[in-house]
Amino acid sequence: MARRRQPTARQMRLGTELQRLREAAGLKGREAAAALGTDSARLSQIESGVVGMSENTVRRLAAAYSCSDSQLIDALVSMATDRTRGWWEKYQGLLPISFLDIAELEHHASHRFDVEFLHVPGLFQTENYARGLFSYRVPELPYTELEMRVGHRMERKVVITGPAPIPYEALIHESALRIRVGNRSATQAQLTHILEHSEADHITTRVIPFDLDDFGGAWSAMAYAGGVVPKLDTALRDTAHGTASIDSEAQLAALRTLFHKVKTVSLDPKKSRDFIHRLAKEL
Known about the structure:
The chain has 283 residues and is α/β, with parallel strands linked by helices.
């Protein structure tokens, strides 16, 4: 199979999971390559996502690694053989690859949750709100690229507003609701937009109020996408060097615990809707 010039995050994740299975089995690269009837260089390309794989290749590797988790194996096979060309493909070469990667991640997610402290979660943003955020970039974006980024963000909403929406839960701090990314009317429209989304049965919105006692979790912002099996979950966190993708089991387990810890102290969905409604009227 031809080499990929730039594998997607999903393709690299497949390779990473196969490498983890190999290492858990205690096999060196050359030993695994021999079991597959290839060489170490080819196996390295597989594990880095540079080349694709057939179902047979994935299952042969899983057998060589004595992996008995049939659900995980089936999920890896699906990752290897899926040929979906999603709506995000039209942005190929026009927007940073990370934009395409997050859209693909959400497309394949079984559920999504966010914890936000400074901004309204992307899946809840209005066009004006998203445009306000992208307009603040330095150096300033060309108008065409800015509008493409806004359009891409709006299209991402298909995972919660489309014909097959996934469960979505958003924990939003009061600060994110109060910061006026746009003017007063735009901020009111954004809050109303959140309320409208929150009426859906598959969407849960919770507010973390300012007056919460003993809350030290303001560093816990994250976006979390559930995989077909928990081992294939992915978390995204902002860092000083950009967005970091987290996929190790230990770190994912810690972030799930952190999410539930923040959720426990947040307002329940009804009180949260009432809170946002009052805030919109106060503006």
